[in-house]
Design a protein that fits this description.
Strand content of chain A: 15-25%
Number of strands of chain B: 3
Shape of chain B: globular
Distance between the termini of chain A: 37 Å
CATH class of chain B: Alpha Beta
Oligomer: heterodimer
Radius of gyration of chain A: 23 Å
CATH class of the largest domain in chain A: Alpha Beta
CATH topology of chain B: Sufe protein. Chain: A
Shape of chain A: globular
Structural class of chain B: alpha+beta
Radius of gyration of chain B: 14 Å
Distance between the termini of chain B: 42 Å
Strand order of the largest sheet of chain B: 1-2-3
Strand content of chain B: 15-25%
């Protein structure tokens, strides 16, 4: 177990009505350690300047730190630093991708059609992967967060594509139906860990099946990268998106990982300063990776906070964090199961899931439960968790969700369980 | 005032005017998709076509949304449509006994009033 680290997080030590907060909404966002808060204020206090532009010391320092952040993230998930693009968050990362597909199809696809010259397919192999045709398919799952669903829905509408879905079983795992992977499948977008059920999905298997059909795999890793060791090289996925604020860093910083050979052939989504190489009145060429995808002044302080967050997580050790959360999850599942009338969604054991548990109390609306818990200064999430299709599949319209992080303790779970009993009394 | 005071819990557990009116003058379904609160309202008017004779609702959702609708339904009987459209948020909060509602819960409390007002507007346009 990771012990005694709440002291590093100022907000967790704040008391309301003489009660310390029990923060159990880590799947939504996480609290920040002193080290992260300090890194942000240090930048503004000592070397606030724009990056890549100024020929003066503080700008150089800011540039070095901003570039270092890419390298630290790259190390963290085992890739090269050119393969890390900074965005606002997971949502923007996925939108960036969806728009790149659209831009490639409109700009390159049309040129190819007009030129009518069939260059050898091998030369443009990567580029062609981004050119979509009417009737092509995008394969998703029923457990996607709206951020890994709606961008693809809209892309499908624009280009006449079809969406296909992998269903989920009763235990909250999706059923890998090989028949859904066909030569029509061009994009497979799946979540690594469900933000509602905590299910850890077999991404490796999905990648193998998708690559057999030359489809590209996009992984929503917002709920996995913060909580367990993730190695993109090993997973072999083509793209991965995650957010800084869910892993101790600031809001406003997210990442898109992409394989270098793909990013080089991908069309940019946002245009402007910083992302260009040469510009004349009619045309522009693109900068190197990752700048090609980072138009405009980037979130510098936020990127620097990412370095501090990764330093903190690495010091604790990602394996230890995963083990810590597994122990909390096992304990919580045991305690929650004993509450009469409480239904738990998702897999049975902590091996199959991250520290995310969705549940309902019979005949009590999740918002009422959350409101009573809030009075005891216990923060949980209640609602549909941006996953309406999954709520439909679970045949409910809302759930309560608790989600743990490295600073949570058994005591937090004891307070939760005690208060749930109180909720039952109020509503009995 | 506590959000789950006795009167709210009483209306939640024993909702008044629950059900559907078979020969309603108008009906409307509304929801807070983010919360999963749902309501369906049916209203029968007096012969003057201006006054609420009967109102019934069905729905599911949190205690606040359902109790609020129940309390509102009792208040609306005998009221003129014009009066109902003119009701402000504060009027509803007063009906609820001025319980303390957080920003997030205000929309639960207002779901019923919004639905009734929307239903009236749609009904009047249709006429």
């Amino acid at each position: 177990m990771i012990n005694n680290i709440k002291k590093d997080f100022p907000l967790l030590n704040k008391k309301i009505n003489n009660k310390q907060i029990v923060y159990l909404d880590n799947a939504a966002t996480t609290q920040k350690p002193d080290a992260v808060i300090y890194a942000i204020s240090d930048y503004y206090n000592k070397y606030n300047a724009n990056v890549y532009r100024g020929i003066y010391k503080i700008s150089e320092e800011a540039t070095v730190e901003y570039e270092l952040a890419h390298a630290r993230v790259a190390d963290f998930i085992s890739c090269h630093k050119e393969e890390i693009i900074f965005t606002k968050n997971t949502t923007e990362s996925i939108n960036l991708l969806a728009y790149s597909f659209l831009n490639s199809t409109l700009l390159i696809g049309e040129i190819n059609k007009n030129d009518n010259k069939k260059e050898s397919k091998e030369d443009n192999k990567e580029e062609n992967l981004f050119i979509l045709n009417k009737g092509d398919e995008i394969l998703l799952t029923e457990m996607e967060h709206h951020s890994n669903l709606v961008p693809w829905q809209q892309l499908a509408k624009k280009l006449g594509l079809k969406l296909r879905f992998m269903k989920i079983d009763k235990k909250g795992k999706f059923i890998i139906d090989k028949r859904l992977f066909t030569e029509k499948t061009r994009i497979v977008a799946v979540t690594h860990v469900s933000n509602v059920l905590g299910t850890i999905n077999d991404v490796k298997k999905i990648v193998k099946l998708a690559h057999m059909q030359n489809a590209l795999v996009v992984v929503d890793a917002a709920q996995s990268v913060p909580h367990m060791p993730v190695n993109v090289h090993e997973l072999d996925c083509d793209f991965m998106a995650f957010s800084g604020h869910k892993m101790l860093a600031s809001t406003g910083i997210g990442c898109l990982y992409g394989k270098k050979k793909l990013l080089e052939k991908m069309q940019p989504f946002m245009y402007g300063g910083g992302m260009i190489h040469l510009v004349d009145c009619e045309n522009a060429s693109w900068n190197n990776l990752p700048m090609k995808f980072e138009a405009g002044t980037p979130p510098i302080a936020e990127a620097i906070s990412m370095t501090a967050a990764i330093d903190y997580l690495t010091k604790q050790g990602m394996k230890n964090i995963r083990r810590h959360e597994m122990e909390l999850t096992t304990y919580a599942l045991e305690r929650l199961k004993k509450i009469k009338g409480l239904v738990i969604y998702g897999p049975d054991t902590a091996e199959e899931r991250c520290g995310v548990i969705s549940f309902n109390l019979k005949n009590i609306h999740p918002h009422d439960i959350a409101t009573v818990l809030d009075k005891e200064n216990i923060a949980i999430r209640a609602g549909n968790h941006c996953s309406q299709p999954l709520m439909n599949a679970l045949q409910t319209n809302a759930t309560c969700r608790v989600s743990f992080y490295l600073y949570n303790t058994f005591d937090d779970i004891d307070r939760l369980v005690k208060c749930l009993e109180k909720v039952k009394k109020i509503f009995s | 005032m506590d959000i789950y005071m006795e009167e709210i819990m009483d209306h939640y557990k024993n909702p008044r005017n629950k059900g559907k009116i078979k020969k309603a003058d108008f009906t409307l379904a509304d929801s807070n998709p983010l919360c999963g609160d749902e309501l369906e309202i049916s209203i029968k008017l007096e012969k003057d076509q201006q006054t609420v004779k009967e109102i019934k609702f069905t729905g599911k959702g949190c205690a606040i949304s359902q109790a609020s609708m129940s309390i509102l339904s009792e208040y609306l009987i005998g009221k003129k449509l014009q009066q109902i459209i003119a009701l402000k948020n504060e009027d509803l909060f007063r009906l609820l006994g001025n319980i303390q509602l957080s920003v997030m819960r205000v929309k639960c409390a207002l779901l019923g009033l919004r639905a009734v007002q929307k239903a009236i507007v749609v009904y009047k346009i249709g006429k």
